[in-house]
Amino acid sequence: MVTLLEVHHVGRVRYILATDLTGKLTVFTENRTVHGSVTPTSRPLVFLKQRLLFLTETGAGSLDLRSMKIRESDCEGLNSSLAR
């Protein structure tokens, strides 16, 4: 089941980002082929338009479309609590 869906433009190419209940992030090209998929350590809650950033239950992350690698960082001051 898809929980988040976002369209992101890189130059003239559009990418569709989809996240499911497990947190798996799948990237599709505009011709509906799978570009790649990754699973962050914390489930994405919302995407931000700038540079493929997303907020997670424990912090923030960014996705590099070329390497399909995620960089994540925790938010300070959450004291081990989770955002839902």
TrEMBL record:
Alphabetical list of InterPro entries matching this protein: At1g75140-like
Protein's name according to its UniProt entry: Cleavage/polyadenylation specificity factor A subunit N-terminal domain-containing protein
